[in-house]
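ingest -> fold -> write
write: protein_1
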Amino acid sequence: MKSFPSLTLLAVTLAGLPPAAHAFSVLTAGHADIGVGYEAGEFHPHWHLHEGTFVNGAPLPEEAEFAPDELLAYVSDPSGARPPGSTWDFLGTSAGSPLWVLPAVEDHARPFIGLASEELESADWTSLHLRLVQFAGPAGGHFSLWQTDALGNPVVQMATSNGLDASDRFELAVGGHHHLNYGFTQPGLYELTLQWDGQHVVDGAVSARATYAFGVTVIPEPRPATLLALGFLGWLAFARKR
């Protein structure tokens, strides 16, 4: 019989989170996009969740949007181990070490996260790209974003193991939708600050930043009731700090 973490353990996990991360909903499985809209000359980053995506232990009855700081993507037990070979050194961990991955191909037990710009009109933009500009994570933890080529070799888009620079970016097809691999090397809270930079045909250069949170654990995926309690306990912790 599968065991589940106690509410006490989940409360202890929450205690290590910063106050801004305490009032959140928890995404555990299903299709969700890190998206961006455009209105009145400004980008509007958000989470776009598809119908049936699991939030706080229950499937959404219809599509929904969340502000970046209203949702935490939950990454459960490791997906496997870091492959051997120097081509995987960008992950920032040694071969054979545990690796938590949200894959580019849908796994119904994990969040399936896309990068979407479908709310933008392609005729309005001459360029659009996404950069990782700030990163916070657990001690020894690294984040990577990559694709694989036809031979299974990684094509790295972002990696924190060698610091952040101009190479930590992904070119977005305006009006498009992309799925890549999200990798994490240690359990803990990861906060990724992303920046959208675009060139609008009328408004010129447009830019915006938003921070997205991912919670990586070594405990089994909690029951729906536990997830609901997790959100409640998070709200209590946030209220106490205020």
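write: protein_2
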Amino acid sequence: MSEVFVVPSDRAGLELDEFLCLQFPSWTKGFLRGQVRDGKVLVDGQIARPSQRLRIDQVLMVDIEEESAPLAPVAPEAELTILHEADDWMVIDKPAGLAVEPERWARDDACLAGALLQVARERAGIEDPDEVGPVAERFRLVHRLDKETSGVLIVAKNIEAERHLRRCFEDGRIEKVYFALVEGEHPLADGESEVIDLPIGPDHRRTGKMMVRTNEGKPSRTRISVGERFRGYTLLRCEPLTGRTHQIRVHLAHTGFPLAVDRLYGRRDAFLLSAIKNGYKAKKGRPERPLMDRLTLHARMVGVPLSASDEIVRVAAELPRDMQNVLKQLEKHRAWRR
């Protein structure tokens, strides 16, 4: 593919890689930066740097072998739910079971990046899935949720917003609240909170797993309080004050209150009605269908500081249906009695 572009006035000042991302939204920024470094993109006939800022009327010559490009992320069938949208960022409601980025061994599966690409294409008036064309916005994920976790996720709409939000995360200025249904009756008194302050690092015995590592881990802090009590279970309100991988799951499991469903750190891979209802009788010839078969963890709220003031915009996501159903059954069969 060989194309020539003239930088319009509304895109003057953009870095070269950012300009290319808007022209070729289906390709990753990393791939496009690599093409620039390999001399496949010339600016006014000269080899350029990915971070070079463009001027109005400069001429770009792009010569890229499409066969070498990565596959575009796949969008899910369900429409993306946008909870709040500002000029430079937005908050979406990520459904459980949807990976944020394409998974290494399942590149053809739908992911959140694919959903965001579809939104950008629709806003640019591109309806044909096979049509190649530029977009006006490139959405950038500034943090992550586990595939099985539902709830709020912040997305930047331009490079300046991305940098601002990343600084806010690094400085601990983003408010985050999760609801976690855990095994056990937590002794923390109503109306009180405590901070779990335990360092976290990789578990070298299993790839992808984390653990509390007193001597080698990174500082990790999670504030918890009780949201609702049941016999044998507790709904906890968790505020991660740092942003380590699997932080809430590791901290809760290490302190003796693992998520009610957590294949990696807990004891169950599904929540069954038969486990909490006395005298439960399964339907003859049918296996019991779980009330919930993913992490009992939901990103409930984020608070985003505005760059021009000290104002914080707080956005919340309702509990998804599966978690609501579990809490309803717990209230019915395991109601808390003092």
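write: annotation protein_2
The radius of gyration is 23 Å.
Residues 255 and 282 are 34 Å apart (CA to CA).
pipeline exit 0
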